């Protein structure tokens, strides 16, 4: 990366008092014009990172750089960053036009210019003709758009979005996912999106940061994170997964329970204890004879696109299976899977070590 | 039908109260205002009210009520704002409210002692070489004590309005480039005007009819509509004129309530959306 990152966190920590640490040593760099997502359960520190970038909080330690300039002590109103708040935080005493114009009026732009920019921003979010409406008259989805218009009208370098879709119903939410993604590409601005919804994160982001308890567990493209989770937490948090303990017998051989399977991982210590992830959609239902594993079907749910089967093997491990094929509850079935379906996770591996290990496998292992 | 009957039953105390203590007294005041000293029906009382003496009295009443409200507001708003920022805000609020539970007369007497010629204020001023100063029976002492008495009623509604204000609105304002001061004038104050209005109502209206403080602290130098009514009834025994002033006082109060009672847009959502 030759270009200066638009945001750089350097050993950033945040704590309120000795007992409550929110962030422990956060380091990352963000490139201009990308869609980033901070993903994690509530209380993981994702909103704190956003508030640090917005300037509503100061870090307890470490440095935050914006375009290479230290901004630790720059107040929120002097940062070229605008936020779309979780509850939208629209001003109830102002109408739609005045809400969007708020930032421009503070910059003391001319009347004509404000008029033009506000109408343009409202057009951008498909709210033309709504400028004289009161906020109370707008629906949740419309308020969301007003909040976005109010942020983009100021032409900030970065737009921060704090779980902006969480208050919307499912259908509207998936619509807004498309719209936000499209908006980001049209504007070419850096978006930092905070969510606890992994589907949202996978659908929209260029890069995802998975956070847990004040730490970045893993960062990467949605596919990297989904296909190669670094540890149990990430595997569990992103998508449905079957996580079991196992042993690395040798390169390309893992043992789960009593059985050995072929895999694509190498370079681990012989007989090292590991966690293994197999995604439910990578498991295929077959006959007991043909299957690599024999399991008993416990429950079966129809999920629309697929059936979700909860099955148990002889050792009592649960295996979740997503299949378009139906099975019979109580029956024994065989499960088949490719060697690539097995993802091996070393215990307590850091992100650096993890990346190095994956690189050492070379390209051929990922041909499929 | 059962529920309808019980509903009517529960409404009886309410209507009885309204009839006995609201409608009847107002009707009586209106009735008495139509008679002169010797008991003859007349409209002269109303004519007299529009003479210079009573108009001046009304004006001075309004002026003092305005001053009391104004000083209460400029002390109460920053106080309420600071209170919402403190850690144990309910406790601090309670400490401000507690004095209002003490009898008004007792507090007023206490100020006679404090402001008196041999009181602690004069003793303090003496240290700096000021001679004995007459503090009691001045406009200053009257307004000071009145503000002291009324201030909890100004703080409380403003505190509630500020406390209900969605903090992310303040973040949003800062985020959009507003300084702290602009945030105050463009977001915080406009969204708490309802609290301010309620506070003005709670202070201005009772200030119009103050009479006990005017007598004890201002030594009857300040004459308000309240003192005028008292004197008409107890000194001059002119119930007709006293009632007439009371009728006007009620009219003024209604006007003040209408002016300060308008609901701002967005007020129903308590500053949140």
TrEMBL record, chain A:
GO terms for molecular function: ABC-type putrescine transporter activity; ATP binding; ATP hydrolysis activity. Residues 7-238 form the ABC transporter domain. Keywords: ATP-binding, Cell membrane, Membrane, Nucleotide-binding, Translocase, Transport. InterPro entries: AAA+_ATPase, ABC_SmlMolc_Importer, ABC_transporter-like_ATP-bd, ABC_transporter-like_CS, Mo/tungstate-bd_C_term_dom, P-loop_NTPase, PotA_ATP-bd, Transp-assoc_OB_typ2. It comes from the Bacteria. One of its GO terms (cellular component) is ATP-binding cassette (ABC) transporter complex. Gene3D superfamilies: 2.40.50.100, P-loop containing nucleotide triphosphate hydrolases. SMART domains: AAA. The keyword Transcription does not apply. This is ABC transporter ATP-binding protein. It comes from Psychrobacillus soli.
From TrEMBL, chain B:
GO terms for cellular component: plasma membrane. PROSITE patterns: ABC_TM1 (PS50928). Belongs to the binding-protein-dependent transport system permease family. CysTW subfamily. SUPFAM superfamilies: MetI-like. The keyword Transmembrane applies. This is ABC transporter permease. One of its GO terms (biological process) is transmembrane transport. It comes from the Bacteria. The keyword Repeat does not apply. Residues 58-260 form the ABC transmembrane type-1 domain. It is found in: Cell membrane. InterPro entries: MetI-like, MetI-like_sf. Keywords: Cell membrane, Membrane, Transmembrane, Transmembrane helix, Transport. The chain crosses the membrane at residues 12-34, 62-84, 91-115, 135-159, 198-218, 238-259. Pfam families: BPD_transp_1. It is a multi-pass membrane protein. PANTHER family: INNER MEMBRANE ABC TRANSPORTER PERMEASE PROTEIN YDCU-RELATED, INNER MEMBRANE ABC TRANSPORTER PERMEASE PROTEIN YDCU-RELATED-RELATED.
């Amino acid at each position: 990366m030759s270009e200066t990152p638009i945001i750089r966190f350097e050993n950033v920590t945040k704590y309120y008092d000795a007992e409550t640490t929110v962030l422990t040593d956060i380091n990352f760099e963000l490139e201009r014009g990308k869609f980033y997502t901070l993903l994690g359960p509530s209380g993981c520190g994702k909103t704190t990172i956003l508030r640090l970038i917005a300037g509503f909080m100061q870090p307890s330690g470490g440095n935050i750089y914006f375009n290479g300039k230290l901004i630790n002590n720059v107040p929120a109103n002097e940062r070229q960053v605008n936020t779309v708040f979780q509850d939208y935080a629209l001003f109830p005493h102002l109408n739609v036009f005045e809400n969007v114009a708020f930032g421009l009026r503070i910059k003391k732009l001319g009347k004509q210019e404000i008029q033009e920019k506000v109408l343009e921003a409202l057009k951008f979010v498909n709210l033309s003709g709504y400028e004289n409406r009161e906020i109370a008259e707008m629906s949740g989805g419309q308020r969301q758009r007003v909040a976005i218009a109010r942020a983009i009208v100021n032409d900030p370098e970065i737009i921060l979005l704090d779980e902006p879709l969480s208050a919307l119903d499912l259908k509207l939410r998936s619509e807004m996912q498309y719209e936000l993604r499209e908006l980001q590409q049209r504007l070419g601005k850096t978006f930092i999106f905070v969510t606890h919804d992994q589907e949202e994160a996978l659908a929209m982001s260029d890069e995802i940061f998975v956070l847990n308890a004040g730490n970045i567990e893993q960062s990467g493209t949605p596919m990297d994170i989904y296909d190669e989770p670094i540890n149990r937490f990430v595997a569990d948090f992103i998508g449905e997964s079957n996580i079991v303990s196992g042993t690395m017998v040798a390169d390309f051989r893992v043992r789960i329970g009593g059985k050995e399977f072929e895999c694509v991982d190498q370079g681990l210590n012989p007989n090292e204890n590991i966690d293994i992830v197999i995604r439910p959609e990578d498991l295929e239902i077959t006959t007991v004879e043909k299957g690599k594993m024999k399991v008993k079907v416990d429950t079966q749910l129809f999920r629309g696109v697929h059936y979700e089967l909860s099955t148990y093997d002889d050792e009592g491990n649960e295996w979740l299976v997503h299949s378009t094929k139906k099975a019979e509850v109580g029956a024994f079935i065989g499960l088949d899977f490719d060697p690539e379906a097995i993802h091996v996770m070393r215990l307590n591996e850091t992100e650096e070590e993890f990346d190095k290990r994956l690189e050492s496998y070379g390209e051929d292992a990922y041909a499929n | 039908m059962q529920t309808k009957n019980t509903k009517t039953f529960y409404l009886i105390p309410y209507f009885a109260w309204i009839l006995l203590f609201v409608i009847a007294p107002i009707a009586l005041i209106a009735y008495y205002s139509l008679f002169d000293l010797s008991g003859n029906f007349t409209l002269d009382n109303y004519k007299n009210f529009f003479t210079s003496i009573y108009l001046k009295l009304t004006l001075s009443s309004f002026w003092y009520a305005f001053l009391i409200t104004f000083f209460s507001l400029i002390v109460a708003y920053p106080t309420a704002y600071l209170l919402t920022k403190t850690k144990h805000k309910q406790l601090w609020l309670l400490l401000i409210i507690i004095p209002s539970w003490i009898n008004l007369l007792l507090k007023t007497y206490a100020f006679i002692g404090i402001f008196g010629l041999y009181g602690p204020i004069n003793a303090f001023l003496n240290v700096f070489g000021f001679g004995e100063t007459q503090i009691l029976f001045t406009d200053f002492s009257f307004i000071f004590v009145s503000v002291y008495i009324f201030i909890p009623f100004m703080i409380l509604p403003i505190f509630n309005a500020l406390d209900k204000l969605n903090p992310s609105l303040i973040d949003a304002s800062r985020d959009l480039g507003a300084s702290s001061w602009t945030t105050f004038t463009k977001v915080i104050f406009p969204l708490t005007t309802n609290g301010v209005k309620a506070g003005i109502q709670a202070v201005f209206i009772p200030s119009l009819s103050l009479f006990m403080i005017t007598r004890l602290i201002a030594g009857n130098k300040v004459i308000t509509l309240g003192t005028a009514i008292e004197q008409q009834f107890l000194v001059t025994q002119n119930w007709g004129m006293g009632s007439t002033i009371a009728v006007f006082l009620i009219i003024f109060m209604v006007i003040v309530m209408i002016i300060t009672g308008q609901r701002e847009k967005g007020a129903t959502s308590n500053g949140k959306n």
